[in-house]
Amino acid sequence: MTSPPPNGPPAESRRGGPRFSVVICAFTERRWDDVHAAVASVRAQEHAPEEIVLVIDHNPALYERLKASLPDVLVVENREERGLSGGRNTGVAVAHGDVVAFLDDDAVAAPGWLRAFSAHYADPFVAGVGGMTLPMWPGSTPSAELVDAPVPSSTGTRPRWFPEEFDWTVGCTYRGLEAGPVRNLMGGNASFRREMFPVAGGFSSGIGRGVHSRPFGCEETEFCIRLRQRSPESELLLDGDAVIWHRVPPERARFSYFRERCYAEGLSKALVTRSVGTQDGLASERAHALRTLPRGVLRGLGDACRGDLAGLGRASAITVGLAWTAWGYALGRRAARRSAPAAPGGVGGVGGLGGVGGAARPSGEEPVR
To answer: Which residue windows does the record flag with biased composition (Gly residues) (predicted)?
Structure first.
């Protein structure tokens, strides 16, 4: 018989429900309204959180402003390296809840978000639960209005060429990802038992957003795979009722960003496989590329035959997106082989990709997140 994860049955099972610490990482004053809308949506949860932790990424002015503006929120400065991974690790370190949930600073959660997460943690084998992230395209409800009413009345207009199979490029749930057991959760809409972070080792600062100018990702993918490798009995689940809406700014609804994000994802996947191996690191991606994407191309061509000419654009975007992701991965793997070996349990750093990964962020320039 399989044993429960480390530390035995969770304490919250004896209290009837987990206590949540919700961690939001912020880095720029340009998202002032977004951050306040995110916090408002957490305050409005049907399952009230134990605390809201707002981590500010190496921006003292923003830290002081938000600390004054949100006196009921625990506002702290990132104590680790600049970037999303360091911010999340800082949030975990100060959290007191049984479960740590993560919400992006440019997203709002539906009122039942934490309640949906909570239902799964009665099972001691569940180490983490994620949810469905829906896009708020350009033209959606402004964040200033979401502060008073966190559920958007409008989600804007999706570009007609943009395939749902690639919604991950804007941080959202994509076609082909289904509720149930999953390999990894998407970091902007995820929760984990706090006791699992010492087991997994935290988020790697060598992967993800905030260090370089390119839109890297996959820090949560690498973390989840590492968690499962170190605690094979643990399960990660995706719940379709744990809904958040994630804002897509106009510049990310353009084909140029789409292509750049795909290329950066390939580079990021090279770092992931360097850390956790190709079998685990690419298992979901192979299935998506071999099953979901070909169906998406055929769907787009079929739509075009039925009079929706934008279907040709969607089919073409899927083809280009896959090609650029594969190209980034190939170049990343080649560059990684020339660099020093990765440290045990983590990644040596994005710098290992050298010029392929893009230059480090110049002083004063905000990272892409």
So the answer is: 345-358
Alpha-carbon distance of 253 to 262, in angstroms, equals: 13
Tokens coding 189: 């809409």
Residue with tokens 């995820």: 190
The answer to whether position 179 is within a domain reads yes
Percent of the chain with pLDDT over 90: 75
Per-residue pLDDT for 101 more than 60? yes
Instruction: Evaluate whether residue 363 is within a structural domain.
Output: no
Total domain count, the chain: 1
149 in Cβ contact with 280 (< 8 Å): no
352 within a domain of the structure (yes/no): no
Question: Distance from CA of residue 254 to its chain's centroid?
Answer: 20
Q: Does some domain include residue 295?
A: no
Range of the domain at 38: 17-254
Looking up residue 92, the CATH number of its domain turns out to be: 3.90.550.10
How many Å apart are CA 97 and CA 22, to the nearest integer? 9
- What average pLDDT score do residues 57-63 get? 97
Distances from the Cα of 133 to the Cαs of 12, 100, 358, 369, in angstroms? 26, 18, 28, 16
Q: How far is CA 81 from CA 56, 146, 183, 339, in A?
A: 12, 31, 27, 21
Structure tokens at 159: 């570009």
Which residues, 6 or more positions from 363, have their beta carbon under 8 angstroms from its beta carbon? none
Q: What is the pTM of this model?
A: 0.88
Of the candidate ranges 22-31, 210-219, 229-238, 273-282, the one whose mean pLDDT is the lowest: 210-219
Token pair 């935290």 in the structure block, residue? 202
User: What is the mean pLDDT of the segment spanning 121-139?
Assistant: 98
For residue 192, give the H/E element and its range.
Answer: strand 189-193
Q: What are the structure tokens assigned to 337, written together?
A: 């082989």
